[in-house]
Amino acid sequence: MTELVRIDHHGDGGHVAELVLDRPEAMNAVSTAMAQAIAAATAELSQDPTVRAVVLSSTHPRAFCVGADLKERNSFTDDELRAQRPLAQAAYRGVLDLPVPAIAAVDGYALGGGFELALSCDVVVCGEDAVVGLPEVSVGVIPGGGGTQLLPRRVGWSRAAQMIFTAQRYAAHDACRLGAVDEVVAAGTARERALELATMVASHSPVGVRSAKAAMRRGLDTDLDAGLRIEDEMWAATAFSGDRAEGVAAFNEKRRPVWPGR
């Protein structure tokens, strides 16, 4: 990885991967190079069969990510901005499409594209000092990293409309009350809590967890009948797997399972 992003592995087997945003001098503002680094890191994680959960964190104690690098963009021509667009999209889509559960650990500011990186995760844990928001309309654009689609799916149309149209910033507890983030912990401990949750996830069947995420993601925007068909398809993928056989055997033998992961 580059100096902008790194991947750390935790626990026995390194099944928990931590994707660390590491551009502290710019509060992790997403430059072109940073976007490319995130896209490359998520591609690597998606292809790693040993990874069972991902934590997205930051080295900066006061900022998860402050969004797009507007200093860089200030010098862009229209053609340069157009050229950057697919690179930025690949970064956000890379987080969103991780096949294993992703947990954002947010301390400090998560604004604009930074908040969109967190929203691209399955679970968002915030320190109580966190501040989140999508202020893009205040600088003449719209959220372009998935925010207009992901936030309404979390909080509903009207709450998302208020957050996006007013460009307001929200303290962690207010964001949690709205459903924009999932859990608030003591300041400075979001990473610790996210790693704790990821370790729990990683202790379970990798086939089961990946299949559950796939069923939820694929069924989200379908009608109920279609969603249940997707669920049945993914159930079959687990029911006849080595993980199911091991899970049932371990339960009956009163021992911890040793997941074959297939």
Automatic annotation (TrEMBL):
It catalyses: a (3S)-3-hydroxyacyl-CoA = a (2E)-enoyl-CoA + H2O; a 4-saturated-(3S)-3-hydroxyacyl-CoA = a (3E)-enoyl-CoA + H2O. One of its GO terms (biological process) is fatty acid beta-oxidation. Gene3D superfamilies: 2-enoyl-CoA Hydratase, Chain A, domain 1, Lyase 2-enoyl-coa Hydratase, Chain A, domain 2. One of its GO terms (molecular function) is enoyl-CoA hydratase activity. Keywords: Lipid metabolism, Lyase. It is an enzyme of class 4 (lyase). Pfam families: ECH_1. Its EC number is 4.2.1.17. Belongs to the enoyl-CoA hydratase/isomerase family. This is enoyl-CoA hydratase.
